[in-house]
UniProtKB/TrEMBL annotation:
One GO MF term: adenosylmethionine decarboxylase activity
Pathway involvement of the protein, from the record: Amine and polyamine biosynthesis; S-adenosylmethioninamine biosynthesis; S-adenosylmethioninamine from S-adenosyl-L-methionine: step 1/1
UniProt catalytic activity: S-adenosyl-L-methionine + H(+) = S-adenosyl 3-(methylsulfanyl)propylamine + CO2
Pfam family, one: SAM_decarbox
Tree of life domain: Eukaryota
Keywords: Polyamine biosynthesis, Spermidine biosynthesis
BP terms from Gene Ontology: spermidine biosynthetic process; spermine biosynthetic process
Organism this protein belongs to: Acorus gramineus (Dwarf sweet flag)
Family label: Belongs to the eukaryotic AdoMetDC family.
SUPFAM superfamilies for this protein: S-adenosylmethionine decarboxylase
Protein name, as recorded: S-adenosylmethionine decarboxylase proenzyme
Length: 280
């Protein structure tokens, strides 16, 4: 089987020092990924997006494609990372003596209502935890839930949908209803031209949450990424305004990959076919 394209993405780890190799730093991960995919026609391309005002919330992305013209065809991807889950919402993802299983977790949590047409294969962990994969035609989605209090976490990812047929803000709100997190991030990746993605390239005002940061990054060939972090804010009028951070200008490109630790990256690096940068 030939790889057509690959994308690896993650937020900042909650416990970075607990990560085993090769996840001790993004540069280590990129080295491993380039070992597998760096020889694809596009070369490996890596980005770190984040707002310096929100230091523990960065979005790490790696792409490679067998097309020399990057990026691959039209595609929108939404990725949400949620922490501080509401304890009642999280309790759904604990097994119970009455045989409470993954199917009931999917229904009771509201996950089945996020995109009702999805066919879902769900799994409950023992004593708690939940994962599912969903499919409908070319649309794919996945959810993973760690419900334990103190380090609760849920992720939602969907790709391959028609952005004109799914309303961006409403989808985010259906996901939030399942978990009611204290904080969350949304990463949007658009391949195939900015305009095609309709409302998906714009920031969303989400009821009950304040946008804490908003970062945008153009991808060579017409692609686009947007990364937004939110924190719950019941009294919306007193919420601080979001800081909108622009994409880096070409003149900010610096060749300093080897000298830069991930924690202090402040530049864009292009070296031997891969690019890594932090957007400020
Ligand atoms: C949903 S699973 C992780 C799935 C997957 N690694 C991910 O996040 O993409 C994590 C939750 O399942 C629970 N769990 C129970 N048994 C587990 C196991 N054998 N492996 C991983 N997680 C387990 C953890 O305590 C946690 O609440």
């Amino acid at each position: 089987m030939t790889v057509f394209s690959v994308k690896y993405s993650r937020g900042s780890f909650i416990f970075p020092s607990a990560q085993p190799a090769p996840h001790r730093s993004f540069s280590e991960e990129v080295t491993v990924l380039n070992g597998f995919f760096g020889k694809l026609a596009s070369g490996g391309r890596a980005y770190v997006m984040g707002d310096p005002m929100v230091p523990n919330r960065k979005w790490h992305v790696y792409f490679a494609s067998n097309e020399s013209i990057f990026p691959p065809p039209r595609m929108v991807t939404l990725e949400m990372c949620m922490t501080g889950l509401n304890s009642e919402s999280a309790s759904v993802f604990f097994k119970k003596d009455d045989g409470h299983n993954a199917k009931q977790m999917t229904k009771l949590s509201g996950i089945s209502d996020i995109l009702p047409e999805m066919e879902i294969c769900d799994f409950e962990f023992d004593p708690c935890g939940y994962s599912m994969n969903g499919i409908h035609a070319q649309v794919l989605s996945t959810v993973h839930v760690t419900p334990e209090d103190g380090f609760s976490y849920a992720s939602y990812e969907v790709m391959g949908f028609n952005p004109g047929a799914v309303e961006y803000k409403a989808l985010i709100e259906r996901v939030l209803r399942c978990f009611k997190p204290a904080e969350f991030s949304v990463a949007i990746t658009v391949f195939g031209g900015h305009k095609w993605a309709d409302s998906w390239g714009r920031s969303a005002a989400v009821d009950g949450y304040a946008s804490r940061s908003h970062v945008e990054q153009e991808i060579p060939g017409g692609g686009f990424m947007m990364y937004q972090c939110y924190a719950s804010c019941p009294n919306y009028s007193s919420c601080p305004k979001a800081v909108k951070v622009a994409a880096p200008l070409p003149k900010q490109i610096m060749h300093c990959w080897e000298e830069v630790e991930e924690s202090e990256m402040c530049c864009v690096v292009e070296k031997k076919g891969f690019t890594i940068g932090e957007v400020r």
